[in-house]
Known about the structure:
Blueprint: H1 9-33, H2 37-64, H3 71-84, H4 88-117, E1 127-131, E2 134-138, E3 148-151, E4 161-165, E5 168-171, H5 173-176, E6 182-184, E7 189-190, E8 195-198, E9 201-205, H6 213-222, H7 230-263, H8 269-287, H9 290-309, E10 312-314, H10 317-324, E11 328-332, H11 333-337, E12 338-349, H12 353-364, H13 370-378, E13 385-391, E14 395-400, E15 405-409, E16 418-424, E17 427-438, H14 442-451, E18 456-460, H15 465-475, E19 479-481, H16 486-497, E20 502-506, H17 512-517, E21 520-523, H18 530-535, E22 538-540, H19 547-581, H20 587-606
Parallel strand pairs: 11-18, 11-20, 18-19, 20-21, 21-22
Antiparallel strand pairs: 1-2, 1-3, 3-9, 4-7, 4-9, 5-6, 5-8, 10-22, 12-17, 13-14, 14-15, 15-16, 16-17
Amino acid sequence: MKKKNKLNRGQRKRLISIIAGGSFAALGILFAILKIELISSLCFIAAGVAAGVMCVTRAVRGIFSGSFFDENTLMTVAAIGALLLGEYAECAAVMILYQVGELFQSIAVGRSRRAISSLSALCPDYANLVSNGEELTVHPTQLKKGDVIRIKAGERIPVDCVITGGETSVDTSPVTGESVPRDAKIGDTLYSGCINRSGLIEAEVIATTEESAAGRILALTETAGERKTKSEAFITRFAKVYTPFVAVLAALLAFAVPLVLQLTGAAAFGEAFAEWSHRALTMLVISCPCALVISVPLGYFCGLGNASKNAVLIKGSTFMDTLASVNCAVFDKTGTLTRGALCVRKVETVIDRGELLSLAAAAEENSSHPIARAIVLAAEKKYVAVSVTELSGVGVSAVLEDGRKVRVVRPERKTDSTAVEVWIGEELAGTVYLEDELKRDARASLTALKRLGITKTVMLTGDNRAIAEKVGNAVGIDSVLSELMPEDKFKAVEELCGDGCVMYVGDGINDSPSIARADVGVAMGALGSSAAIEAADVVLMSHDLSKIPHAIRLAKRTSGTVKANIILSLGVKIAVLVLASLNLVGMWAAILADVGVCIVAVSNSMRLLK
């Protein structure tokens, strides 16, 4: 059985130093209880050395590299100061507790990175290349367009390809998150990262590893952490100013205050220095902004990891905050709220329903038009057309084997859905009504969005008003704008952006301008679309609308967690700094506050992975 969460080399070394330091510290406490002060002090010194070797080494490296005020340097100064003041137990405590905090942070960061880097499993280590009738095992990066590969049952698809031989069932869940397997036959496109569940198939490569779905997902995920939020940028700037400021303040406390006390005759310099230097060292321990510097970016990183595991790719933590602020959701209709494929909804006929559909299908069989495909799919094949004539802008006319003439044409009257009339000779035999089916989760997803604080929902479509309003009413959209060209959609989004934070959800191709203009652009089902990945800020790798409420809910949780970490970290540090400057708490309280807050903040961030 494969082991999980195994410690890396650095973490193991840190754990060993903690165990060694803790063992010596335990002996020190034992000898202190037995009143053997010398051996107790030596044990505490040994504990500080054993636990602090890594910290001191990194501090020296940091000084030579110009990082004078990193946490390693501050902790080293505090430990050495405690040692010089004879506070051997505090010296040991500084190093042991600091190492405990660092180990905890390292494990937390490692877990969040694994949540994202696990996507690398989408890319298999090998591919079966068919060359001159022989099967060769090669690395997927060696494949080029036009190559023929063989994919066996249970194997992961190495690159995007089109099936040229065989049939199978494909598990798309690693890429799209959809649990239901998809049947695939000759001519169907397979995307890299999916799994061939059954059957041996051959396929032609249509994209290299970098251009394939899995490659684009990995490239997108790897760059997701590069775009920092305002919170992260603030913390980075804050740490650069805050730590040197506290270090200078500690130096003033240690040297300036005793000097002033001596000059005023209030106390001797040596006596005052012993007291105030201890306060200064305590402040140095408190001043380490570990909890802030680690927990804030870790919070966003964990949020991105959670999203990635659920097939929601967010292009950076900056879009997390924007997504959390969305109050207006705008949707394209076709392919977003609807399935994007017509189906027969109703048939009005003076003859048998099945007979009417079979006659219409015979006339439409060789057409690639969506209406024709829907009719052919719904009909039983009974008749064959011997000749077919296109009626430009109207429909088709066909002569069947039995001599009957069949016309399938658009009705002259207005209808509230897409419709065609079927004529046999000069007689109207019936009307077939078709519609683009709503996605099953469309209404539930919009209801969930409104519960999350989305105050306005809008649908933009190029369809006629009657069809658009029917769809809008069915899913519970607040406002419907119909008969729009792509440029009209762009203008509508632009106007809405002036009233709040707008999210636009589309299919990522015709809607690219609107996706790019919105505060947050979301591409639906963009598995095979490079345009979608480039234009959108958030990419949903499936057509599952419920991913949108999940993404917003996650963004709100992430943003709230980060804010809570900032408030907790700053609040505790300021409180302990004030208490330390007034000599109301010692170094033990400072250490526990620093490490404790760090562990609480990191644990809070880690909850986002669940």
